[in-house]
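Fold this sequence, please.
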Amino acid sequence: MQERVVWTKDADYYKEQYLISAEELAVLRAAGEQISAERRLVYDALYDWMRKSERYAACFNEELIRAISLDEEVFWDDVVLGRLTDTYVNTQRNYGEHFSMAGLSLESFIGILTCFHEHIRFAFMRNGLATFELMTAFKKFAQVAVDIVTEVYNHKMACTLQEQNDSLRELSTPVAQIWEGVLLLPLVGFIDSKRAQDIMQRMLAEVGETQSKFFILDISGVAIVDTAVANHLIKMSKAAKLMGCNCIISGISGPIAQTIVELGIDIDEIRTTSSMRDALRLAIQEQKE
């Protein structure tokens, strides 16, 4: 279960970030008090746009419109009265988290915000309030909401990618117990420093949990064996030995053996076999002795 995020950006941060002064918020609040009668017209225009939108037809439905309509007054008062407070910031984050979890895309969410803000601007214009000072203050305030929602969505995307990477690492290090006291990890693809570290951690964790005496690393599926890969294998073997587990590297083909020799890598401390079957036979025999 994902832990709830502790956000650090508060109202003061956004005021400083967008150069929003107390005077500008006062101008916005004074103008907002004069367009209270426009609220229904603005929301009706927003819902009409959502129903007719072709670009976001797959995202906008009556259920979403009903969800927005439940908090019309809060949305309206926060924006037109310039209530840039910590409560407002947290409210916007909560809406961002809710709609992102519901599957609403960031693009479509920003589309809703843009349309809503645009019709509020029209309301100011209809009432003869669209001064330069007011429009500047309103534009800054509107940008805050977009910034908050974007941050929430970006964080969710980063978490999703991290979870996917974690899952892929789990799948790429499938340790299996193939015999009593014998673990097997077939390696496939490329091995870089990050993956080598993950493999070692997984290997040592399994050795510690199962108290296995042999660990077979099969590298027949490794794409390239160079100096870095060979050094990673040596480290894995030594780490396992420190825990009382013998590491056997199987899948050493002719080309791989030749490459290792040409690289001048000392592998005297590593036990190797040409096939996984030979490695398993060796581990079973030594356990019986």
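The mean pLDDT is 87. The chain has two domains: 11-167, 176-288.
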